[in-house]
Amino acid sequence: MAAAVFRSFGPPSVLQLEDDFPRPSRRKGELLIKVMAASINPIDWKTRKGEVPRFAVTRPKIPGGDVAGLVEEADPGSQFKPGDRVFGCNGNQNLWSTYGTYAEYAVAHEDSVLPIPEGWSFNEAAAVPLAAMTAWQAMQPSMPLQDKRVLVHAGAGGVGSFAVQIAKAQGAWVATTCSGKNTAFVSETLGADLAIDYTKEKFEEACGEPLDLVVDTIGGDYELRSLPLLKRSGHFANILNSGFMHQYGPVKGPVLLTYYTARGMLLGAISGPRYTFTIMKHQAQHGLGELVELMKAGKLKVTIHEVLPLAEAAKAHEISETGRVRGKLVLQVATE
């Protein structure tokens, strides 16, 4: 099968299209899926660059966890049958798995996918799972969000754009940080009540009253500046961000991340606000079903920054690494 594969760590150019990579083997309880579309998430290029524990990364590796496609094979008696349109996160963005979703075929356990809602394209569906489920799971400890005050950092990005919409769907007041070019997008398209242009104003001054929830996809000094804005009963959701690494480098950054995460959790347990560190669970029961209902109700929209063919996976990584993506990048693997 054709697949985008890296066999060594390095720049986007190490991610190469291979035409004869072996198909994944389906095990009991799994589906073999003909991939129609996959999407790019930061964990994909961080793994390729070696910004994760390299000893844990299986190589060769096909990146990707998000998938939308057609069931090719299923167990006898499965709730799914060949030809069904499904989407989900197969969890194989994890370091130790060879078979991600940047390929013509992928495997996923039955409990990690759901039928694609009527009217949604494969490209749209592929853009949802990992980012939207991460947002859902990060915010879940604070749900329901009715009448709560929420701050989402980087609201124009993948996780951030879903977090804004989920919070608004539940009746929260939502502020979000973004660049000046995205203020209209987060307000008019996503529904944020307050768009804060981080190049012109400090979010801690713009937010006004104390907050109930901060969803932080950036980290670093954003975390340190956000925590004092929370009520004692509030909640700080750290979404596996790399802000400290970007600000302080690969040696000091991880030390600071570990220190401030441990400090936040300890102080949160003693006196508040609550501090959580989100590691996304890929099974559909962890939010995908609720997201499908929002999709069906028209309360969750997908913004696709660009659709590229599988052969341009390396280019997609280049674009994603700029940190200037509005919504999601999608790889179109096949057409119906």
Automatic annotation (TrEMBL):
InterPro entries: ADH-like_N, ER, GroES-like_sf, NAD(P)-bd_dom_sf, YIM1/Zinc_Alcohol_DH_Fams. Gene3D superfamilies: Medium-chain alcohol dehydrogenases, catalytic domain, NAD(P)-binding Rossmann-like Domain. GO terms for molecular function: oxidoreductase activity. Residues 10-331 form the Enoyl reductase (ER) domain. This is Enoyl reductase (ER) domain-containing protein. It comes from the Eukaryota. It comes from Tetradesmus obliquus. Pfam families: ADH_N, ADH_zinc_N_2.
